[in-house]
Amino acid sequence: MPCFSCGARQTDPIRGASPWKRGVRGETQVLVCPDCQRTHDLDLDTCSSCGSVSLICRLGEVECRSCGSVRPARADERACAAGAPGLSKELSDEVEAALNRVLGRVH
């Protein structure tokens, strides 16, 4: 999944923890690259209890990593696992093309 802000693709870290961070934006789990983390106006969702942007979205609920507050994801928004808006078809096509190359399929 690319950075929701700039579109940069995540690469494998050399060792240790990834410098990329997770967040939630519009009820959707997103990734934020190290460069965009330095930007202070990322417009990420915040915790209604403590105001933190350290949220994760999974299985229809949003959890705050700072205070532990859990709330159901709003049903009228996109599902948490849907990915960044507008990228799902593009990513699907990219994955299909990569599989075709690896498996030697010709289309």
UniProtKB/TrEMBL annotation:
Organism: Streptosporangium carneum
Protein name: Uncharacterized protein
